[in-house]
């Protein structure tokens, strides 16, 4: 049996410290490759992402939804990612995450 969940909680940068060691979904902008990892901006916070394969290349911002595990050492171990459209509304997403992790948490997570 694997410890990989069927559901990854959606969090924003303010919640990262509370979810170390857990599987989560982060949305943000891909910044640059640093060899063994890539820098990913989540609400202005830099997250170091490992295990990400075939990083997309573009002249525009690369917006991604990444699912993976926030390791205790501060790295985010990617399991999979989806490229998002340039029209993605980060402000609306942040409001939704606040509601999902707040008063409506029981509707989304066990």
Structure description:
InterPro entries: Rfa2 (IPR013970). One of its GO terms (cellular component) is nuclear lumen. Pfam families: Rep_fac-A_3 (PF08661). It is found in: Nucleus. The protein is mainly β. The chain is 15% helix and 39% strand. The chain contains two helices and six strands, in the order E-E-E-E-E-E-H-H. A five-stranded mixed β-barrel has the order 2-3-4-6-5. Strand 2 and strand 3 form a beta hairpin. The longest helix is centred in the last third of the chain and has 12 residues. The model has no long low-confidence stretch (mean pLDDT 86).
| Ends apart, CA distance between termini | 19 Å
Radius of gyration equals 14 Å
Gross morphology: globular
Number of strands: 6
Please describe the biggest sheet, giving its number of strands, its sense, and whether it closes into a barrel.
5 strands, mixed, barrel
Overall SS class = mainly beta
Helix fraction by DSSP (H/I, runs of at least 4): 10-25%
The total count of helices amounts to: 2
Q: Report the β-strand fraction as a percent range.
A: 35-45%
Low-confidence runs (pLDDT<50, min 5 residues)?
none
Strand arrangement in the largest pleated sheet = 2-3-4-6-5
Average per-residue pLDDT, rounded, comes to: 86
What's the helix-strand series? EEEEEEHH
GO biological process, one term: DNA replication
Keywords: Nucleus
GO cellular component, one term: nuclear lumen
Protein name: Replication factor A protein 3
């Amino acid at each position: 049996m694997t410890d990989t969940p069927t559901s990854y909680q959606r969090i924003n940068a303010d919640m990262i410290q509370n979810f170390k060691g857990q599987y989560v979904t982060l949305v943000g902008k891909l910044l640059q490759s640093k060899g063994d990892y890539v820098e990913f901006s989540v609400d202005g916070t830099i997250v170091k992402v490992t295990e990400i394969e075939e990083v997309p290349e573009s002249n525009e911002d690369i917006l991604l939804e990444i699912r993976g595990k926030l390791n205790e050492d501060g790295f985010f171990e990617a399991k999979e990612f989806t490229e998002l459209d340039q029209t993605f509304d980060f402000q609306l997403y942040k409001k939704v995450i606040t509601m999902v992790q707040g008063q409506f948490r029981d509707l989304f997570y066990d």
